[in-house]
């Protein structure tokens, strides 16, 4: 990491940590130079980056100030899922969402978890892949090492250094997508009947893993800005025999928040106190809107209890199916589980991604998409404000490309989806994200690909249907 | 299938089924034309194919005769594993075998399950892959359908028609290697503590799946020519609560036999009688030395109880990680298990393989490698006869590229491997293939890639070490 990025990171952490609060005046350039022993230009660049990130503003003649967070007033409520372990179901709904629609059936899927695949900064990756496949010989066509290609594991280590973790390539195993990483992590830690605590709402893929393995999900209330409630989690840990905590603390799917760093540390301390493992899903972490990207919980993990799961499906292309896991002290069992699950992962996509990162193309690509996603977040939020009932709850994502809406009047998003069939539109219903039948009045949208007039029209149409349902609710209430 | 291939297949089945026996005179060309209503040239071509396959010989002026099978006299013994369900272990040894050695450590691995990757008929596949990756857009970079690409599922259906199965593309799900197919099949059918009956010796990958899922393996005695003992299996089914039968009945790994068709049918009848599912591993089936290739058990499955698992790791390249499963009546649960295991499989390798098959390149490639493997089987057997003690048991593979040896005097193949360290050679020890510690005196060799003087020298060296150990055994016996 460059000097100015380190400095910006440190300032960022102080802001996150509440050392400097909204409206506070920040140290002068000179003070920074003294405190950190850096040059004036380094200090200036660091502030410029924080300005870009929307965290700091320069006021003429008075210096730099912490920006008051935009603090949207229309955030969804803190979630209140059922406080007991539950079996997960809803596979039919998940299948309906994740199943590819036949190409002739031109449905516009507004809620899937897919990045922008038309981004020109992805093109070099396709070239690298093509070259690798054309020129591969012998070893590259063979079974890879069980842990995956060293070249890619080294690049993962480099990326994770930027997220605060000092890993060794032997700490990393490449998997067939992040889904395999999560599946292996959960199966390594649990036996049928065990309880796993999850943030709530929670990624449906993980919930289905719990279901398939006969596990129970204990959904913990979660704040749309700061993430899983540590107070509720502590109570749950006292009350239930929890085997693992599974969560997505950075650029959460579906809520978009990033847990503040002190809360990540506090969560880890809690896990240590109750001696449970943490399965940390970081698949959207590299898409954080702030630079440097937020640190993982794994960054603070000093006794190997965090199994960090991630991959390139959201930052590059899902169709490559390249994920990874850094399983800490569970490495040997995870490796065995990886062998029995799929053997080694495909060799050449790993090598091509390693090339892509090593050449700096990954960073360039991230810069491009993060800028795009951030802009499109704001645009899509403005559309929702325009086309949806005024009391719709809207998340305020800190990264990634997913927006979460809480519809007013308890409107059922499954019913909404049915109403959208004639318009050939589909949203992701909120109920997929809960084991306890919560979030029926919520839905997920995707703002990754170019927000064309077609998408605006689609969103207007969804808003109209919501409004109609809302009026219906009012009518029934009056009747 | 062409007319002559059908006819050759029918004759082949009569020979296999013992209707025509070694030395028997076969129907004349004219009789064939009458019986099957085919042309003279079709009948001639059918006999020519059976001649090529070594099953039939033409004797001048007297017509066609069934060849007496070479019936090697030095086959390994029928196996006698422990007759009770056992926990599987030996992960360390499996890891040592499957783990990729660092490139600088130039060990010659004589026992791994890897096809010849230098075969020129594979080159078009690399070109197709490169083109697919270079020109892919949108959908092809995205998550594939959960069941896999329709184009590949259609080609799998075509291939399996040649193995006697009439499948529909919806009956097939693409997986990340055959290992995932097996893993999913087993997890779909069982709960921890359940018993699975397996052929013995048995592929270590499957055994490790049993271990990881808390299942017990019941190893059934197996004949090196005709496969799993139906008599022993019947007894076992009466005695134990068996949830599934898992076996590799065609071009078995490691023994090389193909179960005769009547035995496959009888096995299915047994499974029906006891109402258990069959997990049929056919990964080497397309590499059978006879044409048309033997039919699967699945071909006779009329109530959907066979889960057929296969893939392209042995016929094309393991590093692509493309496998598939035809799960019969278990399709829905298998699909869920596939979703939670890895989500959809990688898109583009599937499309490239589908192109490769559709263009006829797969058949061309199979013809080339099958001819090569058959020739090399005979050459490697001749080397073993030359360099190993005379009473070494040698399998007689009907397809694939793996040879199984039974060493005389109870020589321990793990010890042999240790002795081979200075020579930078490694064989696959037999004990990996058993849960009950059997086959310590056996080993597996690979004859896929060109049998160069280097490999001959390596084999001679292995033979010398075996001979030395054998003499040692004799000495100890005398002492
Ligand atoms: C939070 C989260 N984790 C994991 C995954 C699965 O990732 P992959 O497609 O790499 O298996 C997803 C994809 O939707 C996700 O949103
Ligand atoms: C009998 C058998 N089944 C399955 C497999 C695994 O196949 P894949 O590499 O496609 O996962 C192997 C590979 O060694 C095998 O020998």
From TrEMBL, chains A, B:
<dbReference type="InterPro" id="IPR051446">
    <property type="entry name" value="HTH_trans_reg/aminotransferase"/>
</dbReference>
<dbReference type="GO" id="GO:0008483">
    <property type="term" value="F:transaminase activity"/>
</dbReference>
<protein>
    <submittedName>
        <fullName>DNA-binding transcriptional regulator, MocR family, contains an aminotransferase domain</fullName>
    </submittedName>
</protein>
<dbReference type="GO" id="GO:0030170">
    <property type="term" value="F:pyridoxal phosphate binding"/>
</dbReference>
<comment type="similarity">
    <text>In the C-terminal section; belongs to the class-I pyridoxal-phosphate-dependent aminotransferase family.</text>
</comment>
<dbReference type="InterPro" id="IPR000524">
    <property type="entry name" value="Tscrpt_reg_HTH_GntR"/>
</dbReference>
<dbReference type="InterPro" id="IPR015421">
    <property type="entry name" value="PyrdxlP-dep_Trfase_major"/>
</dbReference>
<dbReference type="InterPro" id="IPR015424">
    <property type="entry name" value="PyrdxlP-dep_Trfase"/>
</dbReference>
<dbReference type="InterPro" id="IPR036388">
    <property type="entry name" value="WH-like_DNA-bd_sf"/>
</dbReference>
<keyword id="KW-0238">DNA-binding</keyword>
<dbReference type="GO" id="GO:0003677">
    <property type="term" value="F:DNA binding"/>
</dbReference>
<keyword id="KW-0663">Pyridoxal phosphate</keyword>
<keyword id="KW-0804">Transcription</keyword>
<keyword id="KW-0032">Aminotransferase</keyword>
<feature type="domain" description="HTH gntR-type">
    <location>
        <begin position="1"/>
        <end position="69"/>
    </location>
</feature>
<keyword id="KW-0808">Transferase</keyword>
<dbReference type="Pfam" id="PF00155">
    <property type="entry name" value="Aminotran_1_2"/>
</dbReference>
<dbReference type="InterPro" id="IPR036390">
    <property type="entry name" value="WH_DNA-bd_sf"/>
</dbReference>
<dbReference type="InterPro" id="IPR004839">
    <property type="entry name" value="Aminotransferase_I/II_large"/>
</dbReference>
<dbReference type="Pfam" id="PF00392">
    <property type="entry name" value="GntR"/>
</dbReference>
<dbReference type="InterPro" id="IPR015422">
    <property type="entry name" value="PyrdxlP-dep_Trfase_small"/>
</dbReference>
<dbReference type="GO" id="GO:0003700">
    <property type="term" value="F:DNA-binding transcription factor activity"/>
</dbReference>
<keyword id="KW-0805">Transcription regulation</keyword>
């Amino acid at each position: 990491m460059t000097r100015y990025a380190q400095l910006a990171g440190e300032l960022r952490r102080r802001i996150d940590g509440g050392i400097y609060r909204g409206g506070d005046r920040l140290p002068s350039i000179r003070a920074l130079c003294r405190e950190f022993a850096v040059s004036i230009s380094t200090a200036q660049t660091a502030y410029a980056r924080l300005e870009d990130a929307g965290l700091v503003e320069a006021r003429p003649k008075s210096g730099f100030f912490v920006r008051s967070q935009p603090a949207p007033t229309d955030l969804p409520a803190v979630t209140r899922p059922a406080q007991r372990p539950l079996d997960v179901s809803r596979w039919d709904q998940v299948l309906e969402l994740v199943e590819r629609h036949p190409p002739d059936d031109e449905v516009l899927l507004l809620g899937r978890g897919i990045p922008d695949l038309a981004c020109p900064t992805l093109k070099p990756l396709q070239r690298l892949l093509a070259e690798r496949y054309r020129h591969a010989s012998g070893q590259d066509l063979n079974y890879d090492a069980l842990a995956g290609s060293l070249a890619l594991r080294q690049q993962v280590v480099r990326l994770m250094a930027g997220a605060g973790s000092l890993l060794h390539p032997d700490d990393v195993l490449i998997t067939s997508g992040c889904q395999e990483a999560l599946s292996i992590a959960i199966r390594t830690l649990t036996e049928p009947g065990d309880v796993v605590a999850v943030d709530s709402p929670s990624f449906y893929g993980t919930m289905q893993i719990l279901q398939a393995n006969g596990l129970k999900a204990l959904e913990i209330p979660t704040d749309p800005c700061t993430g899983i409630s540590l107070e509720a989690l502590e109570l749950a840990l006292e009350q239930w025999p929890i085997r693992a905590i599974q969560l997505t603390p950075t650029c959460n799917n579906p809520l978009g928040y990033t847990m503040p760093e002190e809360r990540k540390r506090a969560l880890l301390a809690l896990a240590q106190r109750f001696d449970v493992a943490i399965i940390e899903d970081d698949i959207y972490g590299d898409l954080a809107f702030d630079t440097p990207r937020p640190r993982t919980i794994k960054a603070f993990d000093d006794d190997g209890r965090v199994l960090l799961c991630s991959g390139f499906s959201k930052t590059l292309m899902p169709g490559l199916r390249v994920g990874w896991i850094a399983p800490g002290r569970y490495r040997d069992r995870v490796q065995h589980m990886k062998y029995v699950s799929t053997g080694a992962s495909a060799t050449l996509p790993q090598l091509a991604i390693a090339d892509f990162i090593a050449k700096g193309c990954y960073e360039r690509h991230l810069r491009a998409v993060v800028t795009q996603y951030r802009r499109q977040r704001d645009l899509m939020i403005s559309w929702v404000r325009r086309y949806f009932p005024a009391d719709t709850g809207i998340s305020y994502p800190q990264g990634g490309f997913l927006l979460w809406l809480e519809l007013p009047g308890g409107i059922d998003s499954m019913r909404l989806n049915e109403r959208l069939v004639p318009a050939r539109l589909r949203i992701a219903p909120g109920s997929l994200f809960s084991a306890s039948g919560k979030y029926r009045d919520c839905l997920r949208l995707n703002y990754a690909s170019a927000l064309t007039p077609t998408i605006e029209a689609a969103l207007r149409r969804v808003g109209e249907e919501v409004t109609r349902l809302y009026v219906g609710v009012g009518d029934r209430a009056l009747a």
